[in-house]
What does this fold into?
Amino acid sequence: MKAFDLGTFIRGTTKNIKKYVNHRLKPYNLSEGHFEYFIHIYNHQGLNQKELAEKMSLGKAGVTKAVQRLLNEDLIYRKVKEIDHRNYGLYITEKGNGYIDLFHEIGDELNSTVLKDFTEEELELLFKLMNKLYENTKTL
It folds into this structure.
């Protein structure tokens, strides 16, 4: 298999997942990108935008835009950190907490569909290989 074929599989898989998540989130005026940002903030409440960008391996501009959208939708809020008053942490709002069950439902649906018919051994190998692939691409 060539790298081009691998890229085609990765792009196709990503496209299908994005399409599904976008379809599920359309009634809420959100996209799959917002879903991903929200989940990172939910799992790491108090992190700042720079830390969020690093965790997601993304640029500051894209993170700023997505965070602003989540702020505008009242799903997250910024709060001055007690340790460093120049720094703002990101937290989930009460409205955002109301979306948690929906986001878990979407995540569960994705996992049950995308990972259907994989054995535990295959899943372990898949995650190990995908992590290796990801680490190798960091050198590009």
Summary: Helices lie at 3-25, 32-43, 49-56, 60-72, 94-97, 100-114, 120-137. Residues 3-25 form the longest helix (23 residues). The beta strands are 76-80, 88-92.
